[in-house]
Design a protein that fits this description.
The protein is 71% helix and 4% strand. It has 422 residues and is mainly alpha-helical. It folds into two domains: 3-365, no CATH class; 371-417, no CATH class. The strands form two sheets. It has a two-stranded antiparallel sheet with strand order 1-2. It has a two-stranded antiparallel ribbon with strand order 3-4.
């Protein structure tokens, strides 16, 4: 008796995985080339001077933090870890939050994927909105966080575990020398691989969520949003509900773009989509990290600040883009979002994406070793080395070396050592 329903459930599950794969197929090349460009920027753009200039408040350090964030990885967890490190060393709360917003909204790979899935207007809105986010956040900061609470949070952060984060590979060579240097390309390859290592779960979950949400009937999301109301009320409600959906979905960074495409297809407003994408820094797991880094009071206040900032920025973007006629009037169908595998330009670009991906990973396999503490792939020629019996261990930073030495002890050293490469 239950056989037809059972088959229907299996069909729905199969269709969910199929649509997740088709959406990944649509943007594979964009992901690879976006991550490759980001890796080049991280490896070849010098950042030490910028980091040293981020202390204090005012527009200059905030602007520098924005530039540094745009040259960083799009990983939300990496962004908040680096921002905490900057905050520990004296950067203002405004500069640290500006870095986070920039790192997750002004990076090339996010813009490329968004352009492919839902259109160039959303990419432009993301970049323009990211700058608006930073300005609004800076203006509103003192309404949410007093100077006393900021210093209290800094002291808390200085006693918190520093955790692992990316490190710049340096940029001593000229552009021509870098293009011809195996070492310079090795720096790029290791940044590329480590970004994928941090983000592949988020990206996979994002595609799977989008694939399975795509099986829900078209009216499902309309129940979450006001549809029969004045335009202003609808836009405001969508801009508020969008971040709430993002917080509940637990997906951040590039992983929330596929779900944003489904929301756009189902009728959420332009402001709602933008607010949803902006909200990757206030998903529930990241709020817990804020609590660990800065203490509960500061974490709750910056979360509230970011939520309000996201809503305001999304509304401003919607008003500006509507006034300029840049809000798309035609929404893609779900079949257009998920696409199909066929012989077209995407077959060629995806093939090139596979070649770039394989080539950069192969370079890390030839020249790299695995940090036994954090699992990060590091270039053996630049890694911090530790001789342990007959083995040579390679570490990405002094922090990981010290953690290894603290954890190993006489009995556990060999077990930990087997996680590394000679």
């Amino acid at each position: 008796m239950g056989y037809p329903g059972h088959m229907s459930a299996l069909t729905t599950i199969g269709d969910g995985f199929k649509d997740a794969f088709l959406m990944a197929w649509e943007v594979w090349w964009a992901l690879v080339f976006g991550f490759a460009i980001s890796a080049i920027v991280q490896a070849w753009v010098p950042r030490d001077r910028i980091q040293n200039a981020l202390g204090g408040s005012g527009p200059r350090p905030v602007a520098l933090a924005t530039g540094l964030g745009a040259a960083s990885s799009s990983c939300s967890y990496a962004a908040i870890a680096i921002a905490k490190s900057l905050f520990q060393k004296g950067a203002s709360a405004a500069s640290a939050l500006a870095f986070q917003f920039s790192s997750t909204n002004l990076v090339i790979e996010l813009g490329i994927v968004m352009w492919v899935l839902i259109g160039w207007q959303f990419t432009l809105a993301e970049f323009v909105g990211g700058l608006i986010l930073i300005v609004v956040m800076t203006v509103l900061l003192r309404l949410f966080v007093s100077k006393g609470l900021e210093e209290q949070a800094r002291q808390h952060a200085q006693h918190a575990d520093t955790g692992h984060q990316h490190h710049s590979a340096g940029a001593q060579l000229t552009i021509r020398q870098r293009l011809r240097s195996v070492q310079a390309w090795s720096d790029v390859a290791h940044n590329f691989r480590n970004d994928w290592a941090m983000l592949w779960k988020e990206i996979t979950i994002g595609f799977l969520l989008a694939g399975f949400v795509g099986q829900v009937h078209n009216g499902f999301f309309n129940a979450l949003f006001i549809t029969h109301a004045p335009a202003g009320v609808k836009v405001l409600e969508n801009a508020i509900v969008g971040p709430l959906i993002a917080m509940a979905s637990f997906v951040c960074s590039i992983g929330n773009v596929p779900l944003a495409a489904v929301l756009w297809s189902d009728g959420i407003s332009f402001a709602g989509v933008i607010a949803f994408i902006f909200a990757d820094l206030i998903v529930l797991p990241i709020i817990q990290v804020y609590r660990k880094y800065y203490g509960g009071a500061f974490a709750m206040r910056i979360t509230a600040l970011m939520f309000v900032t996201i809503v305001i920025a999304a509304l401003i973007v919607d008003v500006v883009f509507s006034g300029l006629g840049l809000v798309p009037q035609v929404r893609p169908t779900r079949s257009e979002i998920f696409g199909a595998v066929k012989l077209d330009y995407r077959m060629v670009t995806n093939g090139l994406g596979v070649a770039v991906f394989a080539g950069l990973f192969a370079l890390t396999a030839l020249r790299g070793a695995t940090d036994p503490v954090c699992g990060m792939k590091v270039d053996r020629s630049k890694a911090i080395k530790l001789e342990l019996g007959s083995r040579t261990l390679h570490f990405c930073s002094e922090h990981c070396l010290h953690r290894f030495q603290a954890q190993a002890g006489a009995s556990g050293a060999e077990d930990l050592a087997h996680r590394g490469d000679r």
